[in-house]
Amino acid sequence: LGLALYTGSLCAVNSAAFLYHDYCIIGAGPSGLQAAYFLQQAGRDYLVFERSHAPGSFFALYPRHRKLISINKRYTGKSNSEFNLRHDWNSLLSHDRRLLFRRYSRDFFPNADTMVRYLEDFASLLKLRVQYNTAIIHVTLETDEQAWNGHYFLLTDQDRQNYKCSSLLVATGTWVPNVVNFPGSEYVEGYETVSINPEDFAGQTVLILGRGNSAFETAENILGVTNFIHMVSRSRVRLSWATHYVGDLRAINNGLLDTYQLKSLDGLLEGDLEDLAIIKDKKGKLHITLRFYLENRNTSASIDSITLPQDELDNFATRAPYDRVIRCLGWKFDFSIYNRSLRMMPGKGNKKKYPQIKPSYESRGTRGLFVLGTASHSVDFRKSAGGFIHGFRYTTRAVHRLLENRHHGVPWPSTVYPITQLTNSIIKRVNEASGLYQMFSVLADIILLRENATAFEYLEEYPVGVLAELETQTGRKAPNGLFVVIMEYGRNFSGADKDVFYYNRAVGEAQHAWQSNFLHPVIYYYRRLPTEREMKLRPPDWPLPRPDAIHHIVEDFLTDWTAPNAHILPLRRFLENCLSTDLRNFFAESCFLFAFTHQKLPPFCRQGYMRMQGLVGSEGLRRRAVEAGLLEDYALTDFLGDRPPDSPEGSQDQLLRDHVIPVRPLQHLVNAKDE
């Protein structure tokens, strides 16, 4: 009995030692705070764990030279807040207008310290529940059939405090430096610790390992004081304006390309870093050789007894000794804190620095574990903006909506409209939606058709990678077909070897819209929801399977898709062909005529005129319609003769002429010409 009581009390102590929350978020960086905001708005039980004393600790150190490459465009000429987010790459999503980044910095490329201050304000002003100075050092699973996902996540911090949660959101980013080990790598300085004072490099010769923005940022800082800088990487330089990927080399950092191509001593080389070796001579100079020269030699031997490449090839490119070698190879995800039971595996190939996740951002190995922010970039690596604030603020919102449906029965937000508003709804979204614009080819608007295409249900910014699971992931049904609205670049326009400035690169005619190169809207039509198999067998570089019909809205120099003939009319006719219906708007006069001459009225007449709905006309609007040839001038007053205006007949005519005639807005008058 004593043993049983002791065991029971021990279990009670162990149970009490775990602090429970429905949602645990690891990391109070931008994505962690963004997830916390949505959970708090929904009234959910959550806690954010941050190892530092303040949010955004990554930005307290990086970038080392303190200039962000995310743009802060304060003026667009528009007052639409959703549109302006297309060109604000730093703000997180919230209801508080004070938390727009343009209120924190006037710089186009802001200072990283401003980002730290912004994230601190975001957490404090919104009263997010963040537990600072808490480093999670171990995560494991506890199987329990009563748990949301069949198990709980058990977290342990540096003080051995334990936490239990039903769903785990990992928002730690990628912060572990990439290191390449080769003979002599101990002589290499890391980007994370190297001096940022240019005077420390005065008169020195420097070799930089790497070819990304951190490497070029480092070179830019010391370009004016060094003898020369060489840069080595296994891949060629990729310019962001050619690849349309914001993580590639940005113009703000590419000064070394000028000095290389204009023969000012600096240069770029390609080679596998694992094949290199570094030897230090008696004067402290660093010599570059190849690993195979050292395979059968003592690496501690004198440099005079070691064969160098220039001994056999006297014009070897890196034959000059270097004063310093700097490693700038980026970062990778920290897998060390996750128990093997979670099966958090690295990706393959160039995605090995990220954990393997599904297009829904859920771990492939563990249900209920979602990866947010930069660490989730494997979904759209080198394709879209999911690794950056202006991308993952939207994917984080998408994950929250998936969780709301799965765990709380809250369907994906949607709006139902009559079918007559289909064209207008699409045009409105492609002209202002920031999530579609930033997460092109990844997030899409879904239009679910109701029976007989009399109405539609509009879902915004759904991850297209899980389109086949739409009904289970959103709680919405799609039995009658759907449209998918997405933004895309031209198929063959982006790439490191592409000339994106070639003559006649832009398409201006609507009939050639499918050849558009720049970012433009594309509408896919499916008579039924695509299957998992169709998603897997979709053509290479296609975000979606082959549709039953597809429509490209021609690219626009101003990214303003409101031209009546070039943009709206072709779209409306495409939608009409898919639905076998007439989506035009009509004057009441036309609807009245159709009612007597047609067995089936157009949807606009059925849903508007026949229900006595429409825009009240005026004499001025009628006169303009008559002048434009859109209405006949019946000259109703000619029939009145000299009737007094207060007579019943006169009053009735005045009512007909000034108040009853339903007409549509002037911006839609062009459509009436199609009658």
TrEMBL record:
Known role: Probable flavoprotein which may function in endoplasmic reticulum associated degradation (ERAD). May bind non-native proteins in the endoplasmic reticulum and target them to the ubiquitination machinery for subsequent degradation.
Q: Name one GO cellular component term.
A: endoplasmic reticulum lumen
Q: GO annotations under biological process?
A: ERAD pathway
- What is the similarity comment for this entry? Belongs to the FOXRED2 family.
* Annotated source species: Chordeiles acutipennis (Lesser nighthawk)
* Cofactors demanded by this protein: FAD
Q: Which domain of life is it from?
A: Eukaryota
Species lineage, top-down?
Eukaryota, Metazoa, Chordata, Craniata, Vertebrata
Q: Which UniProt keywords apply?
A: Endoplasmic reticulum, FAD, Flavoprotein, Glycoprotein, Oxidoreductase, Signal
Its quaternary structure?
Answer: Interacts with SEL1L. May interact with OS9 and DNAJC10. Interacts with TXNDC16.
Entry annotated with the keyword DNA damage? no
A Pfam family matched in the record: Pyr_redox_3
Name of the protein in question: FAD-dependent oxidoreductase domain-containing protein 2
Q: Which GO terms describe its molecular function?
A: flavin adenine dinucleotide binding; monooxygenase activity
InterPro entries for the chain: Auxin_biosynth/cation_transpt, FAD/NAD-bd_sf
